[in-house]
């Protein structure tokens, strides 16, 4: 269960001609392969109710909106993303994923599933964020350093943000980044949990 995506990279990195060897790179590769069995195990452990699914769906929707806004500003291999949600947190996709995960945990109504998914996030996501930060620092140098001084790593900064309005959200970019896959996946999981909740009544 992994809805995270890599931040914008320079053309050299994206084309594989100058990939930066950074700490945690090999370990981070296990994030996606392990995410699927972790997600399936969380569903197996789930004990949802219609109320838990309804509340969880609201939280998950918030995560999807954050990720959608970020995807509409993310232009891979072209520029450092620093507008829209990226003007408030350097990792809006991962923050949105955390909200999605929280929504699924509430919907699943299972302490064991919550502990399992929390452990998965704690083990992989700090390493992944550090790895991607190292890549961005190598690719964009002083521009990234200045950006990192202004914008927090994970938890969004509230209040006014100077970079939030420089570039408008692009629905075409949202589609190009295939962020709709997260919405489809979330809908399928919540539908399945809803069926489980009805069946368990």
Secondary-structure blueprint of this entry?
Blueprint: H1 11-14, H2 25-28, H3 31-45, H4 50-71, H5 92-108, H6 111-140, H7 142-150, H8 171-176, H9 180-200
Helix pairs in contact: 3-6, 4-5, 4-9, 5-6, 5-9, 6-7
Keywords:
64% helix, 201 residues, mainly alpha, single chain
Tell me what the structure shows.
This protein is mainly alpha-helical and 201 residues long. The protein has one domain. It contains nine helices and no strands. The longest helix is centred in the middle third of the chain and has 30 residues. The radius of gyration is 18 Å and the shape is globular. The two termini are 27 Å apart.
Summarize the structure.
The chain is mainly α and 201 residues long. It has helices at residues 11-14, 25-28, 31-45, 50-71, 92-108, 111-140, 142-150, 171-176, 180-200.
State the order of secondary-structure elements, H for helix, E for strand: HHHHHHHHH
Domains, number: 1
Q: Report the principal-axis shape.
A: globular
Number of helices: 9
User: Main beta sheet: strand number and arrangement?
Assistant: none
Q: Determine Rg (CA atoms, Å).
A: 18 Å
Structural class, from helix and strand content?
A: mainly alpha
Unreliable segments of 5+ consecutive residues: 4-23
Q: Tally of extended strands?
A: 0
Strand content: under 5%
Distance between the first and last residues' Cα? 27 Å
Mean pLDDT: 82
Helix content: 55-70%
């Amino acid at each position: 269960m992994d809805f995270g995506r890599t931040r914008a990279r320079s053309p050299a990195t994206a084309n594989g001609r100058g990939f930066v060897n950074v700490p945690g790179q090999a370990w981070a590769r296990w994030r996606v392969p392990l995410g699927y069995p972790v997600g399936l195990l969380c569903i197996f452990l789930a004990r949802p109710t219609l109320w838990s699914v309804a509340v969880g769906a609201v939280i998950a929707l918030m995560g999807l909106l954050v990720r959608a806004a970020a995807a509409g500003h993310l232009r891979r291999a072209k520029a450092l993303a620093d507008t829209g949600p990226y003007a408030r947190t350097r990792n809006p996709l991962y923050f949105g994923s955390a909200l999605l995960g929280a929504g699924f945990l509430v919907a699943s109504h299972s302490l064991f599933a919550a502990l399992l998914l929390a452990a998965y996030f704690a083990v992989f996501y700090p390493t992944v964020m550090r790895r991607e930060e190292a890549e961005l620092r190598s690719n964009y140098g002083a521009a990234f350093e200045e950006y990192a001084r202004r914008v927090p790593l994970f938890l969004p900064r509230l209040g006014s943000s100077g970079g939030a309005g420089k570039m408008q959200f692009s629905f075409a970019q949202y589609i190009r980044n295939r962020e709709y896959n997260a919405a489809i996946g979330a809908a399928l999981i919540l539908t399945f949990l809803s069926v489980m909740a009805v069946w368990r009544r």
